[in-house]
Fold this sequence. Notes:
The chain is of the alpha+beta class. It has helices spanning 213-216, 230-241, 256-259, 278-296, 313-324, 344-352, 375-387, 407-423, 463-466, 541-544, and strands at residues 4-8, 21-22, 78-84, 92-96, 103-107, 109-114, 117-124, 131-136, 139-140, 144-145, 153-156, 159-162, 175-182, 185-192, 206-210, 245-250, 306-311, 331-335, 362-367, 395-399, 469-472, 482-485, 511-512, 514-515, 521-524, 532-536, 550-553, 556-557. It is globular, with a radius of gyration of 25 Å.
Amino acid sequence: MKTKGIIxxxxxxxxxxxxxxxxGTTTSTSSLSSEQKSELSAADASEPSAVSAVSTASxxxxxxxxxxxxxxxxxxxxxxxxxxMGKNAAITATFSNSATGVSExxxxxxxxxxxxxxxxxxxxxxxxxxxVHLSYGDKVTKEAAFNPCVSGWELYEGELMPFDIxxxxxxxIQYDTQVFNVSGLEKKAYIWTPADYDANAAEKYSVIYxxxxxxxxxxDISGAARSWNVAExxxxxxxxxxxxxxxxxxxxxxxxxxxxxxxxxxxxACYSSSNPCGNLFGNYVCETVMPYIQEHYNVYTDAAxxxxxxxxxxxxxxxxxxxxxxxxxxxxxxxxxxxxxxxxEAWQAYFAGKTFDxxxxxxxxxxxxxxxDTGYWAEPTYNALLEAGYPKDKLVFSKYEDGxxxxxxxxxxxxxxxxxxxxxxxxxLECGVPVTYIDRTPPERTEAExxxxxxxxxxxxxxxxxNYIFFDNSELKWEKVCAYWFDLTMETPVNKATGEDxxxxxxxxxxxxxxxEGTDIYRIAAPLGVTAIIFSNGILDKDVLQGVTAYQTxxxxx
Length: 558
């Protein structure tokens, strides 16, 4: 049986790890305070739930609005509709532009109410603003997309959820599951079609392919693998614009780190995988999945009506597929891409080998904070692509300096990608402009801060203890133990513990640990200042394919 076990545990820099339990199957890693929190372990491979994603309050049947008035959009202004489940006395909408910084406060007008909600509306210029947040009482929501592809937002317990003003019922998410056999491995695709999908309609449907499909359709809005709500957003877009689309959400499976690792030119080192298979995964998408969808669903087959998107490692792979198969896609959504997988010089060399002509897809980039999301790496890579001659009217960068690296932020901004799919632009953002972050605080390193619990006295312990991290292998009995650590800044200063230039992330599965003679204790001089470490038995994914069992811990805070 081909398995990859994930071990959970607690890590201390000078304490043995003996509280370990095997989970048996791949699971999401523990949350980290960085953009790399779960990228190098397989994403949660559970199938998405088919329960409605909107609040339970909004699931009440036959909600009918009463005492309605209206706010009329004008030629230069778009209507914002908010379904307020808290029935607040007043709401103010603050519209803003993430590139220019301009903003405007607009008091919303109560234009209707129904069973358990008030309806608020106002208008603003989508050519001027791309974001909106709401203020009510002493509370403020996060920023969310504002554009012609948003039918409405539902305000429920501080969350903004996609809302279709044409329907008074919660979206019942149903999807087909298709399993593809690829080189002996099963790969799943979850295919969502709108409730009124017509297999025989003369007007066909566009297709949006989503990577990490196990999270984009799930309806959970809490926890590490919360939903992107892409089905709800797509339904909202269809209601607002009349454009029709289906979603094909590709489950990442156990090979995520390898499948989502591009293969660049030359001997460029890949930091995210020791066995990059992004080229093969791209072929799988274009040569296996897409022909199946085009044969079995009533969809357009041209590039203009075909889009692909992903986030994190998925954003990295979507970007790579978009360049390698440019004639297959009209739009690529690149959310918080893990460009740290290769250094800037490797990307520049890769771009230099490309010819960017009329077949180029429109590239929508999004990244949040410079240090708390992937702005640190997205900025130089995007700018290098511009310098390499990618058509300026074919790419745009949406920079949200307060954004974090998680599904909640990707969901809030997803309608902006949908506008790129529908219109080939983001109305309020200029295409082809180099990106520069204002807050340039780099990714954080977690260094111990003085407190009542941490001694500030000089460390007088012997070097053989204080310079090492230990792993207790007495229960697991792995034949070997490897340690992989995260360097969040991609710099390579000297390892303070050993004097060697190995501060940076080693290639997976990391560095083999030294067994202390006569014991089951293993040790390694890990760099001081990194934020997380993973222990494993050193088995690679290619060995798993041959039936070898691999084990690893989740990401452990260090």
